[in-house]
Design a protein that fits this description.
The complex is a heterodimer. Chain A is mainly β. Chain A contains no helices and eleven strands. By secondary structure, chain B is mostly beta strands. Classes of the chains: A mainly beta, B mainly beta. At the A-B interface, strand 4, strand 5, strand 9 and strand 10 of A face strand 5 and strand 10 of B.
Amino acid sequence: EDKVVQSPLSLVVHEGDTVTLNCSYEVTNFRSLLWYKQEKKAPTFLFMLTSSGIEKKSGRLSSILDKKELFSILNITATQTGDSAVYLCAVFGFNKFYFGSGTKLNVKP
Amino acid sequence: GAVVSQHPSWVICKSGTSVKIECRSLDFQATTMFWYRQFPKQSLMLMATSNEGSKATYEQGVEKDKFLINHASLTLSTLTVTSAHPEDSSFYICSALADRESYNEQFFGPGTRLTVL
């Protein structure tokens, strides 16, 4: 059965900490893996990964994909309270999206 | 975890026809469901919030007469694209909210790819 599993489900850190969010998947006909940040109802796109080992970076956020071990990580360095959100991982397979349940990140001042 | 299904997963239609997409929560009740459209560069645009037993709330810029939403039961919401045109071609994704207080309890469907010829 195709699935995407994110861990941890919930995380509380203090400002300045570095966090690593995990996304593992079992999806046939893998095409791409996407990370979203959801603060309100509509997720905001962060990264799309298609190739193993190539880090994508945007400011304090970075992500990498391992297609052999079937996982991706999202790193956030020097966290800020504005990073508090639910982070969603989604894998696009053959014409279908598989969303993880999300990791809820709470960054305390 | 909770499962949300969409039907159909892929539809091709002629310009001017209407297409209905179903979103079902399979093992939980959802008083609130959301409809998104995916644009190039993977961004998800919220189209509307579907509430069981009441009218949907549309986001600014979304034509409610073109995108008809019906949430007739606690497990089913439908989106009908009326008089579809090629520019309506897109992925349409729904999600269902299991817990009103936390968006961590939002479960997404697999999406429906609409291609209008």
